[in-house]
Specification:
The structure holds two protein chains of two kinds. By secondary structure, chain A is mostly helical. In chain A, 47% of the residues lie in helices and 5% in strands. In chain B, the strands form five sheets. In chain B, strands 1, 4, 5, 6, 7, 8, 11, 12 and 15 form a nine-stranded mixed sheet that branches. In chain B, strands 2-3 form a two-stranded antiparallel sheet. A two-stranded antiparallel ribbon of chain B has the order 9-10. The longest helix of chain B is centred in the middle third of the chain and has 24 residues, at 276-299. Classes of the chains: A mainly alpha, B alpha/beta.
Chain lengths: 481, 496
């Protein structure tokens, strides 16, 4: 069995990233001062170089020792690690040599020694740079520097142009490869940046099927068909602040839907070569899968409408409304959709025309408890984006309702306390998006509502509280037991 | 010796006022510097010092939320004293089998209770449960009217809190902190969203049950937020707001003139000092003036039709929870942002008849069940429930054990304070209806699945109002504060 690294070694090892900046700073400044002091003007700097080189060499040795300790902990790509390790050691060695040569050259005033000193010093700087660069690649990933490089520069550096990170939509769901088309894109986006050949956190790589099957230092990361025993799922489900939670606190987290998909994949035996049509798909999973084909699959038309962009409302029109004492508010900050509430003291009849310039943005309109009549509804068809309309306790009648049929997105309509009848509400049949209708204290009857609901099966109609007395009677029996 | 004393006396005599002021300069300079550097108590939430801004800045002007809201307002029904979840929503048949047995040591080790000492006996549920509504949610027979609206509510069974005494626990629920000094939930909401009604406060508090909550009026205080955001207590008996009517000899015109004069002085003061509390003062005087008309009208429930009174069980002119429920509906119709009801008297320890599970507790259920159900139904038939979030709950739960204060047997059945698991429900405002969330163990002692902390509840309420609980902050004494402190997670599973 592999011997466990002691905590103390790792504890000191973790100081490597802190200490390593000292030799870099010292040795670079030693080189810069040495070069400058060769000019007559800066001759006075020369005596300082020896001391700085000494400090640089000592801190380089410390950094190397700590680095070796850190490497004991594992979790780094072997190739890159050994490159960094040997470059680091070389940097420390050349620093020591440079210090000795500097000291000897001054003591003996030999030009031969001086030449050797300068060349060692120059080599040291190059090695130091290289060691530093590969060290950075170890912690941040080898593409850290170039990740955001603009495409023209990439061409010069001989790199491939940047990949556009757009979620690829699946076109044929039943034929889609579960692992390749559905699961791997999730893993690629959320896991692979730390679990790859360069970084290997927890000795785990997830970039290929083989690597997934191999697992990490704690063994397999999933047990086919058993989500509860699968380490991967267990860690994902831990609270975010838990040390073992994945992805770690602060990194982009998996969405609930992504977790559901991973769960489903493992439950279905974690296949790497099956198609969606070959496994069980529950209704919930089907819903999630549908969003991979069409991101709007589970949204209502109204939700899609309100999620879309609309141009900013006319400032002047907003100001005019304000002066008339009407609140026109955006639904939310940085959203242009508007809600308007007509004050109780006013009538919608006279005010509705001043809302015309906002027809494109207006989506919630509250005319409730005002003296609004059918006259206002005649003008309502221009507000095609209305989704919620309050007309409760107004003077509107059946005649006005005919104008509502041109509001394709209307989802909520409140007509309680109006004179509308069964006949009137039949005119709402074409409102395919209507979900909530309030008809308490109107002349509408159950029969009329049933007729309407035949045309709109998803419509929920509230006719007010019924049978309140019988409830009271039942309850008094229960209470007296 | 004397020489020294004399020398000291001389030295002191030389210390003139001029010396004193000179020595103070560095201290005073430091204070001045501090205020220049932004440790200014009068800075607003963006950290900028408010300088003389236009005087028409209305702190209660409606503001857009962070994202499109599900709920435009909240009605929070706080049952002060903490009702027992085991007699209402958390059905525990196993506990009935353990009734009368000694509580196992494993439940007591390392626990602190408010009153339980030694080894108490287990107390089985004192109510009958059955599935109710179309959803078949288990609710006890003590809430017969609630059965009618159970399909509107999401019952959370795994609330847990940090405090086992009433006042700190109430503060935690209402202000996010067990200590005094934080703004209450209603203050945060009106600070974030303003008020839709110019003539009424954005945050109104109604109290019933004969007592204010143990934590006092700080549960509707505004803490360090400008005081304009604090809750305004209205009464259903007598003057609706204390001192809202004009005294004898003061008519409305004279009141207007004196307010105009006071406002002019305050405006000058604000231009000079830039203190937002001056703005608060101006708008509060103006609000009070408008409330002299609006409040008596809205608080008068006598003109409600008879069937509404029957439905709620209200009696005009009396102070009761039922009246407050009806008022809550009237206030939500007028666009009041946060309506907070407190009903006192739910602290059932079993030490008196009023505080007994088999007596007082049943009476409280009877008093509140009908009006709560009526409120939900009435909001629904008016199309208001869609955009009104109703929250019901206490500040903690009750133990599955019979209380044994001072190690003695109690005269009645009662349960001690319990922080680990208790039930609350929410309805309307974009919350799923007819569901239960979270599971407790067989005796309702711990939450074992989907636990919900008080901060999670608060985050969820703010979320339904269209606000990110992490972004609704106020800069005070050098740092940003928020309702949920450094915690809180929206309970997404109960949202429609």
């Amino acid at each position: 069995m592999e011997q466990e690294t002691s905590d103390l070694v790792l504890f000191f090892g973790r100081f490597h990233p802190i200490i390593l900046h000292l030799p870099i700073g010292f040795l670079l400044i030693a080189f810069v001062l040495e070069m400058m002091s060769r000019l007559e003007r800066f001759k006075t700097y020369r005596p300082a170089v020896g001391l700085i080189l000494f400090l640089g060499a000592v801190s380089a040795i410390v950094a190397v020792v700590l680095g070796l300790m850190l490497a004991e902990g594992g979790g780094y790509g072997e190739e890159l690690l050994s490159l960094h390790q040997w470059l680091g050691i070389s940097a420390a060695v050349t620093a020591v040599v440079a210090f000795v040569l500097n000291w000897q050259a001054r003591k003996k005033a030999s030009s031969g020694l001086d030449k050797a000193y300068v060349s060692v010093l120059s080599v040291m700087v190059v090695v130091l740079m290289a060691a530093g660069h590969y060290g950075g690649s170890l912690t941040h990933g080898s593409d850290y520097l170039t990740q955001y490089m603009p495409n023209p520069l990439r061409a010069v550096a001989g790199l491939e142009p940047k990949k556009e990170k757009v979620a690829v939509l699946i076109t044929n769901l039943p034929e889609a490869q579960i692992y390749h088309d559905i699961i791997y894109p999730i893993i690629d986006a959320r896991c692979v940046s730390c679990h790859n050949p360069d970084k290997k956190k927890g000795e785990l790589m997830m970039h290929t099927v083989e690597a997934m099957e191999e697992g990490g230092e704690n063994g397999a990361i999933f047990v086919a068909g058993n989500t509860e025993e699968s380490d991967m799922i267990k860690r994902i489900l831990l609270p975010e602040e838990d040390e073992d939670h994945m992805p770690p606190d602060g990194k982009s987290q998996l969405t609930d839907e992504q977790v559901e998909l991973l769960n489903w994949w493992i439950e279905e035996g974690a296949p790497f070569d099956k198609k969606v049509a070959q496994v069980n798909v529950s209704d919930d999973i089907q819903k999630v899968l549908n969003t991979l084909v069409d991101p709007n699959a589970n949204k209502t038309e109204v939700e899609i409408l309100l999620a879309s962009e609309v141009k900013a409302p006319d400032e002047q029109a907003l100001n005019q409304l304000q002066q008339q004492g009407i609140q026109a508010m955006p639904l939310a900050a940085e959203v242009n959709w508007l809600q308007v509430r007509i004050p109780l003291s006013k009538s919608g009849d006279s005010l509705i025309q001043s809302l015309s310039p906002l027809a494109e943005q207006l989506t919630w309109l509250d005319l409730g408890d005002t003296k609004t009549t059918d006259q206002a509804l005649e003008r309502i068809p221009q507000f095609t984006k209305l989704t919620r309309l309050h007309l409760e306790n107004t003077l509107v009648t059946d005649a006005g309702l005919q104008h509502l049929k041109d509001l394709p997105y209307l989802e909520y309509l409140n007509l309680y306390g109006t004179q509308v009848t069964d006949e009137g509400i039949q005119q709402l049949k074409e409102l395919k998006n209507l979900r909530k209708l309030y008809l308490w204290q109107t002349k509408a009857t159950k029969e009329g509502v049933a007729q309407l609901q035949q045309a709109l099966p998803q419509l929920e109609v509230n006719m007010g509280v019924e049978n309140w007395e019988t409830v009271a009677a039942d309850s008094s029996v229960a209470m007296n037991k | 010796m004397r020489l020294f004393e004399e020398a000291r006396q001389r030295a002191a005599e030389y210390e003139t006022r001029r010396h004193f002021l000179k020595q103070c300069t560095s201290g005073l300079g430091g204070i001045a510097l501090g205020s220049l550097f932004g440790c200014n108590p009068f800075s607003d939430s963006t950290g900028q010092v408010l300088t003389a801004a236009p005087i028409n800045r209305n702190p209660l002007a409606p503001a857009a939320p962070h994202f499109a809201p599900q709920a435009k307002r909240v009605i929070y029904l706080h049952m002060a004293g903490a009702p027992s979840q085991l007699e209402l929503f958390d059905y525990k048949p196993e506990l009935a089998k353990l009734h009368g047995l000694d509580c196992p040591q494993s439940l007591l080790e390392g626990k602190r209770f408010a009153f339980i000492q030694g080894v108490p006996k287990m107390l089985g549920p004192q109510a009958k449960f059955a599935p109710r509504g179309e959803s078949g949610t288990m609710v006890s027979d003590l809430l017969p009217y609630f059965h009618e609206v159970v399909d509107e509510a999401a019952i959370i069974k795994t609330l847990h809190t940090d405090e086992f005494n009433h006042a700190p626990a109430q503060l935690l629920v209402q202000t996010g902190s067990a200590r005094l000094g934080r703004p209450s939930m209603g203050s945060w909401v009106t600070y974030g969203l303003g008020s839709e009604n110019d003539n009424l406060p954005g945050f109104i508090v109604l109290v019933s049950g004969g007592n204010t909550p143990s934590a006092g009026k700080s549960v509707w205080g505004s803490g360090f937020l400008p005081t304009i955001y604090q809750g305004v207590q209205c009464r259903s008996e007598g003057d609706p707001v204390l001192y809202v009517s004009n005294p004898e000899g003061m008519n409305r015109d004279l009141r207007r003139k004196s307010l105009d004069a006071i406002n002019r002085i305050n405006e000058d003061e604000y231009q000079e000092m830039g203190d937002p509390e001056t703005l608060t003062r101006i708008s509060q005087y103006e609000m009070a003036f408008r409330m002299q008309i609006s409040v008596p009208e809205i608080m008068d429930i006598s003109k409600e039709p008879d069937y509404i009174h029957q439905m709620y069980g209200t009696e005009p002119g009396k102070a009761s929870f039922a009246n407050n429920c009806l008022l809550a509906r009237r206030l939500s119709e007028r666009g009041v942002r946060f309506i907070q009801l407190y009903d006192w008297g739910w602290d059932t320890h079993g030490s008196s008849k009023d505080g007994a599970i088999e007596h007082g507790f049943r009476d409280k259920c009877k008093q509140t069940d009908q009006p709560v159900a009526a409120l939900i139904k009435d909001l629904k038939q008016r199309g208001l429930l869609e955009e009104t979030l109703v929250v019901w709950g206490g500040e903690f739960g009750r133990t599955p054990m019979q209380e044994n204060r001072n190690g003695r047997e109690m005269p009645f059945m009662g349960r001690d304070h319990h922080t680990e698991a208790f039930s609350m429900w929410m309805a309307g405002g974009g919350v799923k209806g007819g569901i239960s969330y979270g599971e407790t163990d067989e005796i309702g002692y711990y939450g074992i699945k989907d636990r919900v902390h008080i901060h999670d509840l608060q985050a969820t309420i703010l979320h339904q109002m269209g606000m990110h609980h992490e972004q609704l902050t106020y800069h005070f004494q050098g740092r940003d504060f928020r309702l949920t402190d450094v915690a809180g997670k929206v309970v997404k599973d109960i949202l429609a």
